[in-house]
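Newbie here. two chains, one complex. Structure please?
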Amino acid sequence: MTDPRTVVVVGASVAGVRTAQSLRTEGFGGRIVLVGDEPDLPYDKPPLSKQFLTGCWSVERIALLTAEAAAAAEIELRLGVAAQRLDVADRQVVLIDGSTIDYDAAVLATGAAARPAPWSPTSGVHVLRSMADARALRDDLEVDRPVVIIGGGFIGAEVAATAHALGREVTVVDPLSAPIGRVVGREVGELFVDLHTRHGVTTKFGVGVESVEGEAGDLTVQLTDGSQLAAGTVVVGIGAVPNDGWLAGSGLLVDDGVVCDEHCRAVDAADVYAVGDVLRWFHPGHGEHVRVEHWTNAVESAAVVAHNIAHPEELRSHCPVEYVWSDQYDWKIQIVGRPVGATRHTLVGDLTSAHPRGAAVYADDSGDLRGAVAVNWPKALLVCRRAVGAGASFDDVVAQLDRLSAAGAAPA
Amino acid sequence: MPRLLADVKACQGYGNCITGAPDAYDIDDDGKVVLLTEEISDADRPRVEEAARSCPANALSIED
């Protein structure tokens, strides 16, 4: 059955693409227009800091939606043209080329941008968010000069591992003494610091950056402890900011993301939805508004919004368990829940042997499970992910992992 | 009936498929996807298709 409605999805990264595809899966028979500011066909971002950056994977390998797949699903692509503003009263998306698209439902999927580097020498300083960023960085990484990475979070650590694999001499700088500790707690965060040093990457943690000067191939990074680092290339990974500036005059409530209800509908505009990194929604499980920059949250919120547009008579809430992964050196890292709010943790397995495999499980004072971090042990992560979703107890999960480990899942 | 396909080599053990369709997918001790059924009903298809699409490694598909 055809539907007279038009859905306009603004943003063609994973949240936007999956929303468009899921609308069809949910049986939506109306018109779907997918707007994207980049000229390239939609692509997936996680490989940009890993397989795409090394050159192992091609553009085709990281495609999210081919032209053929879009045509088959009757998804109209408007690529290479950014949205300029949203007219909520007239239900129109206005594009920067002056054209407009009328909508019955709008889905805001404009994502987040890399927080810009506060230092701007003429060249040689990179951020990494888009395919164009990755291509430019790859070109500079081909030059055999030291690489300095500012920011020891996930992007910084992944680029460090990749640059090291490409044969570069790498130093990672961060003002925190254990940067990933922001996510996994200080003690487990220290293991992430060891991971760098064990692979021959230098860390300067607990030290800030004063300035970056020079040009590509000949940069000087001045640190707050008075020391200097010479670099051919500098990569800045200091977080992301939601792409919500274009909505400033829309009348929508925007506060570090588009503020939405539990159904991912913008407050005060029931025909406007948000998905992915730009979504700040009321999480019924946490009882507060949150914004989450994880790939899985993009896909899960897309499915919820597609369902809610296709079936407005049975609205779903978006109540996910947080889940994120990262690949660094020989560690496949998977994190579920909210470990950082925990007061204690137990480690099952071994993360420092030649074949690391283990999981840290986190609890709060009441013994409730808060989350888990698994390394090279997807089965353990799965157990923990189910347990966090089901509200299981910490002791119960540790016992399950002990059994899993003893049953031979962990290496001898 | 729609048939489930899995590319075990591509699977990275992310486990998203199991959150969406625990009746169709699981992973083994090596972290590789296991199909719990070969075919699904048309009624289950939207839900299982969403689960397949949630695979970050593009390892899952459904064939008519």
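Moderator note: The interface with chain A takes residues 12-16, 18-20, 27-29, 31, 46, 49-50, 53-54, 56 of chain B (CB under 8 Å). The domain at 1-58 of chain B is CATH 3.30.70.20 (Alpha-Beta Plaits). Thread marked as resolved.
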